[in-house]
What does this fold into?
Amino acid sequence: MRASVNALELQRSALKRALGQRVDAVWPEGAVVRRAKDWSFRGQASPPDAVESLLWSARAGDVDRLGGLIRFEPSAKKKAEALLAGLPEAARAQYGSPETIVATMIAAQIPTDYSAIATVRETEPDSDSALLTLRVEEGSGAQRDLELKFQREQDSWRLDVPEGVVNRLAVQLESPASPVH
It folds into this structure.
């Protein structure tokens, strides 16, 4: 019920913003709000730590660290390997691994104007996976919820990159305006 109330408050806030009315941030009750100025590389001991590390790495342009924070679903791994193999030799040498090329594309797409994040909900369907719903606030004050899936590998949590994400990145790489060519 609390999740439904949070979602309704977020919708109400978006409607007020669309009408040009003043809107205060809507954070879930009891949520720890982390402002972008305070983000750091927190490691991967928990999904919330991994999210903050991911956002910090993307904002800093540290694709090596970002690459270490992701993991591919099995079918996505094959697609990412094929994507890397299809690049010109110089690009393959530059990126070196499927994780690095996908991390580079992720870093380029994560909005740099996020000003704060908070965990709305964390569920663990089993001991090695977690679904994290985050509320992100943009520099404009607009907020939205994102759902991310994480997998535990030994003692580290990694963002689960599905095949659909790799497919979208492959389409972008084929575009003449792509920064990766």
Notes: The chain has a mean pLDDT of 85. The domain at 27-174 is CATH 3.10.450.50 (Nuclear Transport Factor 2; Chain: A,). Helices lie at 2-18, 47-60, 63-67, 74-85, 89-95, 98-109, 163-174.
